[in-house]
Structure formats: C-alpha cells, structure tokens
Amino acid sequence: QQQVKQSPQSLIVQKGGISIINCAYENTAFDYFPWYQQFPGKGPALLIAIRPDVSEKKEGRFTISFNKSAKQFSLHIMDSQPGDSATYFCAAGWGTYKYIFGTGTRLKVLA
Amino acid sequence: GAVVSQHPSWVICKSGTSVKIECRSLDFQATTMFWYRQFPKQSLMLMATSNEGSKATYEQGVEKDKFLINHASLTLSTLTVTSAHPEDSSFYICSAHGGLGRTDTQYFGPGTRLTVL
C-alpha cells in the first residue's frame, strides 16, 4: 500500500517529442506528488509538484496530470531536448513529509 | 534558494573505519532532514528521518548502531557510517525539509559517494 509504481523503466524519445512517464499509488493518504530529475552522480532536483485538489499543473515544458479517482499521475515533457536526458523519479508524500519514491525512469532524448 | 550541501562529495575508506557525512541547509532552516541510500540504477531508499534536537527515526531494516545520525542544529545533520564494510559502499543523499513557504518539499543535497575497500 506504500508503493509507488512507475513506468516505463526506460524511455527513448526523439528531440522535440513528448516524453510521458506514469506513476500509480494506492494509499489515499498521500497528498503531495513531486517529480524529481537526477543526473548521474548528482542529487535529485525538484522539477514540479502537485496536490490532489488540482488535476493539472504546468511549469514551462513540464506538466503534471493528476487523476485522483484512478490514483495515477504523470509527467509530460514537451519539446524534449537532449539536455533532458536523465533519470526521473516520481514520489508521493504525506503529513509526516516522508516520501515514497517510484523506481525511476531513464529518459534518453536523441538529438 | 533552497540549497542543500553535502560534504564530502566522495570518500574512500578502509574496511572497519568510520566515515562522517555532513548535510547542511544553506539558506533555510531545516526542521527535518532525511537520509537516503541509492545503489546504481536504483531508486532512493529512505534510511532515516532526522528532526532537530531529537533522536532519528530509522526505517525498518536499517541498523541504527551502524548508521548514526545527529541533527544538532536546524542547518546541520550528520550521518556516520561506523565500522564500514564494502557492502556499505553506496551513494548517500540527504534532503532537507522546512523553511518559510516550503511546507511540503524536500530539497536534496548533491550526494556523497562512499567506497569502502
């Protein structure tokens, strides 16, 4: 019940294309859903986050879509660039501020 | 804003020695800090939650006597890996939570690569 399932494990996208990464959760106590980007040998960096009372949030090329009834949320990267090549983690958090992380998606954007 | 630093960025030590890793929130006060461990190509596994001035809360399966955590101030938490062994080799990452306006977000440090010979 504490798991966050993330897919796909890896993703290859052409430059300019849309990258879509999906996450699903079971515990309805989760109330905060951030996405992090991690480059090799670096710590994760916050990209964008959403709360369950909002169905979509957009920041630049990054959009989170949230489906509360399905307990799913996804990250869309528009106009994907080679510099976006990294590992992306979704997470779910709740009142204690702890996060449960997804398993990660390795994105490669081809030039 | 919301910068978290870690020191050292990498460390190599001999088996049986202890290693201390520092995590600092540079521009905000962190009421809570978290320590994670990450193996290559894997996700982040939470080791413990550290609140300033109180004992850390360890996740199931994490040896509290091996991974000593101290959160002495609102800007500093330390993780000491005691009597390190090769299987402790990993990427250790801290995160900090708290500060005005940052009610839910964890900000991560750059990580520390530990190699135990």
Question: Can you describe what's shown?
Answer:
The complex is a heterodimer of chains A (111) and B (117). Chain A is mainly beta. In chain A, 0% of the residues lie in helices and 55% in strands. In chain A, the strands form two sheets. In chain A, strands 2, 4, 5, 9, 10 and 11 form a six-stranded mixed beta sheet that branches. The mean pLDDT of chain A is 94. With 117 residues, chain B is mainly beta. Chain B is built from no helices and eleven strands. In chain B, strands 2, 4, 5, 6, 9, 10 and 11 form a seven-stranded mixed beta sheet that branches. Chain B starts with a strand and ends with a strand. The model of chain B has no long low-confidence stretch (mean pLDDT 91). Chain A binds chain B through residues 32, 34, 36, 41-46, 49, 89, 93, 96-99, 101-104, 106, and chain B through 4, 6, 32, 34, 41-44, 46, 49, 91, 93, 95, 97, 104-111, 113.
Level of helix content of chain A? under 10%
Poorly predicted segments of chain B: none
Kindly state the percentage of residues in helix of chain B. under 10%
Overall geometry of chain A comes to globular
What is the 3D shape of chain B?
globular
- Percent of residues of chain B in beta strands? over 45%
Question: What is the number of E strands of chain A?
Answer: 11
Instruction: Quickly give the structural class of chain B.
Output: mainly beta
Largest beta-sheet details of chain B? 7 strands, mixed
Provide the gyration radius of chain A in Å: 13 Å
The fraction of residues in strands of chain A falls at over 45%
- The sequence of SSEs of chain A as H and E is EEEEEEEEEEE
The oligomerization state is heterodimer
Largest interface: A-B, 21 and 23 residues
